[in-house]
């Protein structure tokens, strides 16, 4: 057993006591400082606290050579997520996975791979042109004390990224590095983003924490131009037009035009207008904003919706002729009619009915398409669809607003071949000839043809059954069209006859009236003559 000399043991004991005391003193010192700090925060006048804080920061800045920049998730009105924050998030996703110890996981746009990003309160380093920088993700608590009943935990926490770097690199960081982060971040975001299908919220739901003017779901429509049944030449023309547009950033800048393009898709129901929009979005990898115009109260709201759309998107207004009365005269008529109806309602309901009315006007819509605001963001397609192009105001669809008018019409033989390939995987069949002839003779929409081609049984010769079904449907449609044409002809004939009869009757009546008048005229003349002779006799 080791023998410890008495003085040494005493010395060691003393040392232990000294270090024990020291920790105790340090602990109480820290507690004291914390207490003082709490008192300082609570009782010092606000202005004085700010003043002291300001000079403390100055002092620290004097001895501490590092600068920090923070990027809040929600800035300004807090209703819109800061784009810079999102870009940094994506940039760090790319850079942080190697160095950060705590990561968050999400799933990529194809739902196939995990996307890892830096978790909250984590720090990573980055290097740019040989300069070292530090990024950290933080939470800032801002409790809402004055109205505790409004307290929402999520509302009180603001997330932000903090960038720290040596002050001698200030110029490099603010001029080059931040742009580099933004560009890379945006590129990564585009790569990883899930495309979305948006629709507008009614404006009554626009206000409140994190409420948005657009609601969205993930866009997953499988339509492509390959599966779209239409004339191949026309299809290629549309594809070329779209691709040229999407690569035309510099060209549009050069010619001084906003980087957007309008498409008007028109044709009977079931000819593939909505399908084509999905194919466009899939071709260009764009988001889709489906505007429900009847839920937009006025032109200001329409503009707000436009501002909140992102670039690389298609803004769609379906059935534009039904969404609004866009020609002055029809609108006037409708208003008059509506007012009659509304007048019969009790007063509060009347007000409500007026409130609900969309007051979006033609000029509001024109401004939406090509006003000054329409240029913000860039790279946007605006697509209108309609079944009745003739009903639209010419101002709305003139070139420059709706640059390309695309007519989608009944199924042609070429279109049928694409459908047969899609639905039945058939390139040729002995019945193709008959179908081709029938398609030339009658009108059938691609939607109806597609329905006939959908296999309904899993038989030995399911393809032939489908094609025969189609032939039957085409023959029925042809027969119906013939009967309808006959009926219409009959009706037109009847109408002609009726109008001819009416004309005859009218002319007979006219003749009768004129002869009566004539007779009356003769009688009057005779009476006047008689009167004259009587007067002469009296004289
Ligand atoms: N040209 C086409 N190519 C491929 N499929 C088509 C085509 N046209 C229609 N279809 C099929 O028919 C269905 C209806 O088509 P879609 O909704 O695109 O028609 P629409 O022209 O938008 O009709 P509406 O005017 O009633 O809105 C789609 O689900 C699609 O499968
Ligand atoms: Mg449609």
UniProtKB/TrEMBL annotation:
GO terms for biological process: response to stress. GO terms for molecular function: ATP binding; ATP hydrolysis activity. Keywords: ATP-binding, Magnesium, Membrane, Nucleotide-binding, Transmembrane, Transmembrane helix. The chain crosses the membrane at residues 22-40. Residues 342-355 have a biased composition (Basic and acidic residues). It catalyses: ATP + H2O = ADP + phosphate + H(+). SUPFAM superfamilies: P-loop containing nucleoside triphosphate hydrolases. Pfam families: AAA, AAA_assoc, AAA_lid_At3g28540. Residues 259-412 form the AAA+ ATPase domain. Residues 331-355, 482-539 are annotated as: Disordered. Its cofactor is Mg(2+). Belongs to the AAA ATPase family. BCS1 subfamily. This is AAA+ ATPase domain-containing protein. The lineage of its organism: Eukaryota, Viridiplantae, Streptophyta, Embryophyta, Tracheophyta.
């Amino acid at each position: 057993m080791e023998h410890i000399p008495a003085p040494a043991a005493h010395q060691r004991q003393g040392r232990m006591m000294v270090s024990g005391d020291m920790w105790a003193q340090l602990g109480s010192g820290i507690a004291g400082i914390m207490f003082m700090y709490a008192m300082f925060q609570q009782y010092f006048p606000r202005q004085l606290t700010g003043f002291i804080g300001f000079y403390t920061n100055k002092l620290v800045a004097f001895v501490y050579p590092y600068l920090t920049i923070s990027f809040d998730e929600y800035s300004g009105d807090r209703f819109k997520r800061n784009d810079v924050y999102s870009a940094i998030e994506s940039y760090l996703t790319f850079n942080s996975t190697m160095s950060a110890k705590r990561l968050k996981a999400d799933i990529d746009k194809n739902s196939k791979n995990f996307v890892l990003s830096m978790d909250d309160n984590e720090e990573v380093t980055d290097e740019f042109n040989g300069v070292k920088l530090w990024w950290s993700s933080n939470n800032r608590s801002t409790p809402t004390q004055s109205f505790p009943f409004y307290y929402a935990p999520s509302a009180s926490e603001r997330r932000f990224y903090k960038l720290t770097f040596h002050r001698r690199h200030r110029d490099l960081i603010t001029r080059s590095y931040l742009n580099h982060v933004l560009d890379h971040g945006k590129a990564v975001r585009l790569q990883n983003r899930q495309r979305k299908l948006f629709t507008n919220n009614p404006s009554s739901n626009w206000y409140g924490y994190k409420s948005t003017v657009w609601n969205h779901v993930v866009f997953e429509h499988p339509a492509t131009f390959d599966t779209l049944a239409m004339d191949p030449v026309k299809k290629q023309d549309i594809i070329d037009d779209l691709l040229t547009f999407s690569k035309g950033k510099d060209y549009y800048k050069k010619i001084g035009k906003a980087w957007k393009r309008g498409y008007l898709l028109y044709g009977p129901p079931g000819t593939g207008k909505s399908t084509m929009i999905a194919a466009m979005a899939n071709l260009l990898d764009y988001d889709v904003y489906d505007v429900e115009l009847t839920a937009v109260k006025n032109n200001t709201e329409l503009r707000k919706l436009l501002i909140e759309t992102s670039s690389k998107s298609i803004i769609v207004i379906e059935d534009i002729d039904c969404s609004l009365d866009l020609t002055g005269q029809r609108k006037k008529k409708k208003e008059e009619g509506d007012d009659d109806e509304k007048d019969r309602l009790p007063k509060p309901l009347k007000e409500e009915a007026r409130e609900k009315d969309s007051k979006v006007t033609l000029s509001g819509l024109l401004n939406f398409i090509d006003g000054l605001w329409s240029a913000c963001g860039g790279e946007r397609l605006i697509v209108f669809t309609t079944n009745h192009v003739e009903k639209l105001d010419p101002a709305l669809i003139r070139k420059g607003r709706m640059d390309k008018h695309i007519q989608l019409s009944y199924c042609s033989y070429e279109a049928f071949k694409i459908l047969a390939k899609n639905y039945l995987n058939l390139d040729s069949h002995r019945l193709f000839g008959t179908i081709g002839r029938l398609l030339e003779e009658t009108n059938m929409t691609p939607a109806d043809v597609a329905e006939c081609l959908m296999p309904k049984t899993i038989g030995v010769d399911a393809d032939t059954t489908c094609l025969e079904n189609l032939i039957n449907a085409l023959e029925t449609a042809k027969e119906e069209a013939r009967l309808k044409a006959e009926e219409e002809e009959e009706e037109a004939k009847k109408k002609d006859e009726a109008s001819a009869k009416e004309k005859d009757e009218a002319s007979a009546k006219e003749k009768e009236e004129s002869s009566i008048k004539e007779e009356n005229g003769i009688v009057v003349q005779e009476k006047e003559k008689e009167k004259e002779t009587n007067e002469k006799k009296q004289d």
